[in-house]
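S1.2 Input.
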Amino acid sequence: MEKNLYLVRCGEVALKGMNKPYFERILLERVKNALSCYENTEAKWIDGLMFVRVPDTVPEDEVVDKCVKVFGVASVSTAVEVEKDIDKIGAAAAEMMMKIIENEGVQTFKVKGKRADKSFPIQSPEIGRVVGAIILKTCKVLRVDVHNPDVTLTVDVRREGAYIF
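S1.3 Output.
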């Protein structure tokens, strides 16, 4: 069974100092509880970000609605996990943008690179440029707009893998 990945960001948990693990545990329990109506749901914290995996049979908007209603959750993004290879990241990002174009009809985009894994050879700004170039080659109807894009695609490279959302 395939699972969809969601990245859940929580507001002020990072400000809680010594109580941070307690608040993270409570938030994780509440998100799991909100999604308990779906079988085979997984949620865990990795480096300050909650990763939620839900079976792909569950509608995306239902998962997002249930998660954002949990007190303390700031935002939820649908994500794709990719191997830490810039060509694979670019291909997955282009595929994601094609789906966004079909569903939302966007015309402009921006790619924001984040590199938490400092052993990854490409730095954050360059990740954005390289992935953006791959998207432009694939999605010929798009233009880059770094100031006011219709969509901002983020590429987050971490120890465990790369995430596009």
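S1.4 Remarks. The beta strands are 3-10, 42-46, 49-55, 73-82, 108-115, 143-144, 151-157, 162-164.
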